[in-house]
Each structure stands twice: as C-alpha cells, then as structure tokens.
Amino acid sequence: MSKAESKQSLLSQIPGVDRLLELPAVTSLTSRIDRRVLVNLAREATFDLRQKLLSDGFDPEEGLEVWLTQDLKRRVDDLLSPNLKRVINASGVILHTNLGRAPLEQAAVGRVAEIASGYTNLEFDLESGERGSRVDHVDALLCRLTGAEAAAVVNNNAAAVLIALNTLAAGSEAIVSRGQLVEIGGSFRIPDIMDGSGAVMVEVGTTNRTHARDYEAAITEKTALLLSVHPSNFRVEGFTAEVALPEIVEIARRHEVGVLHDLGGGVLQDVREYGLPHEPIVSESAGAGVDVVTFSGDKMLGGPQCGILVGKKDALDRIRKNPLMRALRCDKITYLLLEETLKLFLNEPHLRTRHPVMRMMTEAVDRVKERANLLAREIGEVDGTVEIVESAAQAGSGALPVETIPSVAVTIQSGLSASEFARRLRSSDPPVVGYVRDDVLHLDLRTVADGEVAEIADAVLKALGVKRETPCDT
C-alpha cells in the first residue's frame, strides 16, 4: 500500500461524531459536562485528528477510536480544571506582580466564604434601612491610619490617579516633573494616564534636576494641579535635585491650585522600624497638606488589588461623585479583604507575625535558612548536586527598587537543563516557580511558607523522576 493510500485508509477510519458520542467512555462524560459542549469538543477533536493525519502521518498504536476517546477526555479535563491556581513562589520576589502580588492574611481569607456565599450590607445602612455607601466600610479606618479627612477606593492605583486627575484637572493643566514621568508594569505610563484623564500635562525641570522655580514659572491661569509622583520602581542618583513635597504644597497654596501625590506602593508605617529602607508614608503626605494621595492596596499594604485615595474632604467628595467612580468601583470581596488588612495595622506589635508581606520582608535570614536546610534534606541524594547558597530576595512591584533582602536559596543541578527543570516544576501540582541564574535552578526560601517545603520537595523529586519515600516533617 502506498503512503497516500495508507493515509487515506486511516482518514476513512475516523469515527463520526455521532459514533464517537455513543461510545460508553464518551457517554459517561455527559455527567461532567453538557452534551452540547461535548458535541463541539468531539467535532474539534476529530478535525484536529484529521489535520494531524494529513500533516505528519500520525498512526496511533491503540487505534483511532481509542485515541480519540482519550483525547476527548483530556479536552474535558482541561476545560473543567481550574485555570487560576495556587502557585508556590520560590522566586524570592515577595510582591511578584505576575504571581498576584501580596498573599493575604489567613483570617481575612477565612471570611471570604461567609461574605461571598450570601448577601451583605455592601451599600445598605442597617441602622436607617436606607441605601449606604460601600466606601463607608473602610473610610474611618483609612482616615484613622493616615490622618486624612476622607477616602475612596477604586480597582487599582492607575485608576486612582486617573479619576483624581479627571476630577481635579480635566481640561486644565497638571504640572509634573520630567524626572517623575514613570512607566509602571505592562507599559502603562504616567503621560498616558494623564492623557486619558483629560488633563493637559505640562512637564517641568529635567530628568535629573527639578527646582521650585520650575513649578513657579510653569503655573498659569490654566493650571489646576501640581502632580508629584513617587518614583517607586527606580532611583536616580548622582547630580540630582527634586522639590520636597511640603514645598510643592506651599507653591500650590500660594497659587491656589491643587496637589496630587501618587505614592504608587504606599506604606502606612515607618518601615525603618523593621530594618527596611525608608519609603514615603501615606500619613506624611496627607499631613503635608496634599489634596489627594493615591496608593496601591496590594503592594506594601499587603491587601487586595485596589487603588486607595485619601486626602481633603472637599477633593474626595468631588472624586466620589465622579461618574467614573461607578466604572472603577470595587466589589464586596475587595472591601472585605481591605478592611481586614487595614485592621492589622491597628496592632503594630503583631504586624510581623500576622501580615504575610511584612513577615516575609523582615524574617530573620537564619529562619529562612532553616527552611532551606529542611528542603535540601528532604530532596536528599539525587542524581545531581543540591546546594544551599546565599541569595538576594526583592520586595517586587516597584517597592524598594534598588534594595535587596538577604535570603537563602537551594540550587539544584541535574542531568536536566535548568530551563527544562524549571518547566517541569511549573507543571507540577501545585506549580513551583523558581528562577534560573548562570544556568542553575534556584529556589529562594524567603517567599516559601513552612507548609510549602514538603510540596516543593515532592515537585523536585517528581521532576527528577525520583520516588519520594517519606513525607517532609515541617
């Protein structure tokens, strides 16, 4: 039989969709998925098989019918399996944007099921029986923790900057230092956000030096706002000059224009108390007389993704009445998690132990090394080299951009290439994400919880094809 005849013979053996759906192994799938969806999957499977046979001479040993049945089951499994998964972060980047940034405090997470499974008083005043405001659930907490007069919450910090600019400066000029025209993740830039807000951007100063006189000279009757952006994800060093926030506020008051301070990450307490480098504190900005301060909920704050605005009551009242507020507002789960996260800051002595981000950033390196030793022991002797090495963790998400945090990593060299090893770990359940440096796989233990060490050991041994004998004692 010629090659063409052989291929044609195989094509003729592909069962029709009706025949495929009558097979017991396929019929049983209807208990898991609607028949209409199964029909579409069967059509896709038979079409793909036909293309495979035509292109590369595919000829499964088990026969086309069995192969199709298995392929259809795999398609159902893929469709029904969770796409958003828990991932073990062994990258050493604490606020890893691609891995969802801040892990949340367990007590807060525990309340999600209670709130999500029923009705809530999200916008309902239980005392009066009238409609309420969702921001009221966190307004008092935010004001107490920052010293601000009022607050608002939207879905992320870029949205917070956007709605503040749109409210306070749409159609007017907003002055900003050239050295503060930052680009944040995903190629979103401050100039783009300003343009989208309707504010007219006026740049002053130079990349490395901006003076008070630059702001003074740029203010006209069209000016509505002075924008100050904290360069949270980079540092300019050397021959530099920036105008301090209190001086910017003084200039603005003298010319009767507003001030918007975008902190990006934003912290509620002086992190130097925990041995970390200084980061601008929200209360300092609010106390300086800024009209509006914006910052993220899921960075140094350690809460859910959201953008927080605090500041003067008249400015926040205007922002809360902006029609964009409805488009950018947060849901009940975000408010729940934000409220519970903020409450942690009411008891600072326990912050290190209860706040996951602060715990990871401040944990003693000796404690991290204990987990590294445990992981190395549990991996044991494998076909390769397992070592414990010093590492440098990072805050991530633009926080503390030039600073590293002493850490400890386990490195593994085996017969696999580092990239293939990393791929296999990402394919484990749960996925494990490390990093490759100098063609060596590193697993940084600063971002790994105690209870995850055993899971990493399982994933490593499985990736190396080694059967695990005893569970890890954590």
- Outline type: globular
SS-based structural class? alpha/beta
- Mean pLDDT over all positions: 91
How big is the Rg? 28 Å
Helicity range: 40-55%
Oligomeric description of these chains: single chain
The rounded distance between the terminal residues' Cα atoms is 63 Å
Number of helices: 21
CATH superfamily of the largest domain: Type I PLP-dependent aspartate aminotransferase-like (Major domain)
Strand order of the largest sheet: 2-10-9-8-7-3-6
- Overall number of structural domains: 3
Q: What is the level-2 CATH architecture name of the largest domain?
A: 3-Layer(aba) Sandwich
- The CATH class of the largest domain is Alpha Beta
* Main sheet attributes: strand count, strand direction, barrel closure: 7 strands, mixed
Low-confidence segments: none
Q: What percentage of the residues does DSSP assign to strands (E)?
A: 15-25%
